[in-house]
Specification:
There is one protein chain. With about 280 residues, this protein is α+β, with helices and mostly antiparallel strands. It has two domains: about 1-120, D-amino Acid Aminotransferase, Chain A, domain 1, CATH 3.30.470.10; about 125-280, D-amino Acid Aminotransferase, subunit A, domain 2 (D-amino Acid Aminotransferase, Chain A, domain 2). About 30% of the residues lie in helices and about 30% in strands. The chain is built from eight helices and 15 strands. The longest helix has 17 residues, at about 265-280. The model has no long low-confidence stretch (mean pLDDT about 95). Bound molecules: 4'-deoxy-4'-aminopyridoxal-5'-phosphate. The site of 4'-deoxy-4'-aminopyridoxal-5'-phosphate has 13 residues, from helix 6 and strand 13. Acts on leucine, isoleucine and valine. This is Probable branched-chain-amino-acid aminotransferase.
Length: about 280
């Protein structure tokens, strides 16, 4: 694999980052994951915009402008011959002279790393045909989940809790309401109404979420952006998650209880189809 690190395209074995990098020592960094369909980038504009916001919220400098960033993404797709897959991007506050909680001097160069993950068949995933199982867990993350930081230990633990319970993923619950999935936004459908938690500091503002809500409204669906409970979700007709890597993925079981008919619902399947069609068309 050819990867990108601080201005250079290198074989992955040769790419190096300092042990004093603040991403490594303090999880002081942000990231984005953009999907590739047909060798093109899905919603690059949305990801670039959220990246700029994450950087700003953390007072972090952008090492490249967004045009350069697009060019790096395209170069990596080409160099690695990616047809379907993902591009991971991470920017950290860089390597300080020593370990210190205080931020390093402002002229410390940020670290930027990008790599590709080839995933043939990403859009035609078997899981989308069967649906996935989720469990509910307590949301124990920090309070600024709207910033896409690399601090992902609790979501990793959540995936392991799901695995241990024989499920595929976990929905996190705070003060009785679902926030989101470990790496995705959560939705239910009841009597034709699409319900998903409103934006705020409690969840990541999913790029896929924004597109799916737009397509749902264009299809004349009623959309309610509000909190919902696990009990409400268990009584729903359908449920699904969204993310740049899963697109729209039906959820058919919650805490061992079947949702709807226990198979992907018609509305979820339709939204997945619309999302993939439209995003392929708009991909750059
Ligand atoms: N919520 C969380 C916690 C996530 O990690 C992700 C994916 N990174 C999402 C939602 C979905 O965001 P997007 O649609 O931009 O991939």
């Amino acid at each position: 694999r050819t990867v990108y690190v601080n201005g250079q395209y290198l074989p992955e074995e040769e790419a190096k980052v300092s042990i004093f990098d603040r991403g490594f020592l303090f999880a002081d960094g942000v990231y984005e994951v953009t999907s590739v369909l047909g060798g093109k980038l899905v919603d690059f504009g949305g990801h670039a915009k959220r990246l700029e916001r994450s950087l700003k919220e953390l007072d972090m400098a952008a090492p490249v402008d967004m045009d350069e960033l697009l060019e790096i993404h395209r170069q990596l797709v080409e160099k690695n011959g990616i047809d379907e897959g993902l591009i991971y991007l991470q920017i950290t506050r860089g390597a300080a002279a020593d370990r210190d909680f205080a931020f390093p001097p402002e002229d410390t160069p940020p670290t930027i790393v990008l790599f590709t993950q080839s995933k043939p068949g990403l859009a035609d995933s078997p899981a989308a045909r069967t649906g996935i199982k989720v469990i509910s867990i307590e949301d124990q993350r920090w309070g600024r989940r709207d910033i896409k930081t690399v601090q992902l230990l609790y979501p990793s633990m959540g995936k392991m809790m799901a695995k241990a319970a024989g499920a595929d993923d976990a929905w996190m619950v705070e003060d009785g309401f679902v926030t989101e999935g470990t790496s995705n936004n959560a939705y239910i459908i009841k009597n034709g109404t699409l319900i998903t938690r409103h934006l705020g500091n409690e969840i990541l503002h999913g790029i896929t979420r924004a597109a799916v809500l737009r397509f749902a409204r264009e299809a004349q669906m009623t959309v309610e952006e509000r909190p919902f409970t696990i009990d409400e979700a268990k009584e729903a007709d359908e449920a699904f998650i969204t993310s740049a890597s899963a697109f729209v993925m039906p959820v058919v079981e919650l805490d061992g209880q079947t949702i709807g008919a226990g198979a992907p619902g018609a509305v979820s399947a339709r939204l997945r189809e619309i999302y993939l069609d439209e995003m392929r068309k708009a991909a750059v």
